[in-house]
Amino acid sequence: xxxxxxxxxxxxxxxxxxxxxxxxxxxxxxxxxxxxxxxxxxxxxxxxxxxxxxxxxxxxxxxxxxxxxxxxxxxxxxxxxxxxxxxxxxxxxxxxxxxxxxxxxxxxxxxxxxxxxxxxxxxxxxxxxxxxxxxxxxxxxxxxxxxxxxxxxxxxxxxxxxxxxxxxxxxxxxxxxxxxxxxxxxxxxxxxxxxxxxxxxxxxxxxxxxxxxxxxxxxxxxxxxxxxxxxxxxxxxxxxxxxxxxxxxxxxxxxxxxxxxxxxxxxxxxxxxxxxx
Length: 277
Description:
Structural class: alpha+beta
Order of helices and strands: HEHEHEEEHHHHEEEEHEE
Distance between the termini: 15 Å
Number of domains: 1
Number of strands: 11
Radius of gyration: 18 Å
Helix content: 25-40%
């Protein structure tokens, strides 16, 4: 683990601690998701080369958190999502530490810095009818693709994709998609679609706006409500049926991936006006 990643881990843990104070004091529900859940099980904390924290909240709790947190967080923490910043590339929410500067590697070509942050995802339900669920997936992913193609220079071309998806993507990347699709409009459509189905009334729920898209849609009962796991010095709520959840996302999740498959998202370059080498 590099010193750069260690410093980023410490900043992210400080953000998470402040976020958890607000969540717990307002009786809101959250879960570790994705690589954070994997890190808790396999490493009892961060995946050594991973540099972010992902938590999810059922939609009702997520919306309440956004309402409350803006007033409760210290002034050096900032909530950012597509509603607060029209230049923001994503749908989901980040809580940023504005005292830091980082480079997001996938957008390094833009020559911009952003801030160290943790990701907060809404967890939404899906249609209970299997055919309607497939139609729902298609609609959300179509609008997600149109949103991403507005920022096509940031698309991860190394991600595993089907042959059809690669073929389709190669064609679209040759078109002026940054002008064809209005990213903000696509995010508004996605927001409306996601809010249609309440998590606890749905057989299948999850975070379709994460890196694994529909792979993160799992039987709702997997989540439970009271399973806690060690994550660094903290005890964090996680997915109760974590084995089934992690198998769905990663397959043999206890196997350490080869070095060429270990993704680093950010590089921290400044903390409190101190340049980090």
